[in-house]
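job 3f2a | input accepted
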Amino acid sequence: MKVCRIVTAGATALAASAIVGTVPPAVQASSASTATWTKQHPATSPRARQGTAMAYDAATGTAVLFGGSGDLDDTWTWNGATWTQQHPATSPPARQAAAMAYDAATGTVVLFGGFGSSSLLGDTWTWNGTTWTQQHPATSPSIRGYAAAACDVATGTVVLFGGERPDGANFRDTWTWNGTTWTKQQPAAHPSARDVAAVADAATGTVVLFGGGSPDGGVFGDTWTWG
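job 3f2a | predicted structure (227 res):
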């Protein structure tokens, strides 16, 4: 069974970025009851930051967090009770506003692009629960930050949309990752160019995209589905 849960659009955690997605089965079972936020007090925790990338790793049952503002390149995992800093043999360079999502086909978490120390990035990395491995796909999206990414449970691919270009404008392209390479899709219809959109995999087997921003400071409130 292919499982996808939490994804981010790669900006500031939750509020401005979009930590969204479906929830674990145990939570789904009680979804009829009133839900609420509960502040946690873990024994250890990442330092304060924004622009972090985060995704649910269904293979290990943990949430994976990477990087963020302040030129950070650290990796942390959340097991439901506390954060644990990981010390992988290799790691992506420091960045913020990267796109991140779980790849159900390979059981790894995929990270793409973001804002590096001095420029936008366009590299692809995968996390296998122990270490990061840089991938060298035959084709790849252009360098960008604030792209939206999600696991497409119906096809077992990662879907990436939009993001901020080097010139400050936004992309409106759609790419899919199959575990080996990126493929540019040519859909008949697509959302307008944007960044910082919220994306989630849905119970309907489609990927849902909502909102986002434009270079002129405008914001979107439209809903799109992929699949």
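job 3f2a | The helical segments are 25-28.
job 3f2a | closed
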